[in-house]
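Dear support,

I submitted the protein below through the web form. The confirmation email said the job was done, but the results page showed an empty box. After a refresh the structure appeared. I'm attaching both so you can tell me whether what I see now is the final result or a partial one.
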Amino acid sequence: MTLNKWPFPNKIGKAWHLKSCFAMFAVGMWSKFMLKIANKLKIHNEDTLDLYVCGRKEETPLITVSNHSSCLDDPVLWGMLKLKTLRNEKSLRWSLGAQELLYTNAIYSWIFSHGKVIPVVRGDGVYQRGMDFAVGKLNNGDWVHVFPEGQVNMTNSLIRLKWGIGRLIADCKVPPVVLPFWHLGMDDLLPNRRPYIPRICQRITVLVGEPIDYYSVLNECQRFKYSAEKTRKILTDLIQAKFAELKTKAELLHRENAS
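What the results page shows now:
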């Protein structure tokens, strides 16, 4: 599907930010209700997430990466953010979303664009307009969240990550903070089967990792003049390994939370 019109203005002004602030705060409060009141959230290493979302230097980009187990991962998982963060739209994440699923009509386009979801076309590669836009936001010091699996993972197993995340890291003018987290239970909150009705009283576990140290790897790629494709693969493989570590730890914590 091709968008008739790119959903973001060339220059995002105060009026756009005001509408986005309203949309994101309303959805953020609903997400907080769903995550912390209607269901039971246990978040580990929360201070690290708060530190890099709110406490990093203004010019430092932030990329968060996580697994993707439910259609409600975004926005509901952002209910774990503090209220002061949800009130500040400019500090909230940009996210990549499938254009063919989210940008299907004018109403959805308004909702998702003001919800700071960047349309990408699966299969169009790492050099498409949505990816360019995301790189631009990172180069502005913004926060971009990525589900590098590129799809809702129905099995919760480790699957090969998409190389787009490698491009986002490699093409930043300022080295971004890359912060991973792994979550469990979101597919109980919203099962991946009809009738797709959110549930209550489910256990949600989130394990926030430490920033990924990719600097020496990236420096090596640059020193030996690896191709852009090889560099993307190496960086993506590094995140894949970190996901494997977080998954094992998060599953243990999720079982402990049940007792």
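Response: this is the final, complete result; the empty box was a page-load delay. Residues 51 and 86 are 15 Å apart (CA to CA).
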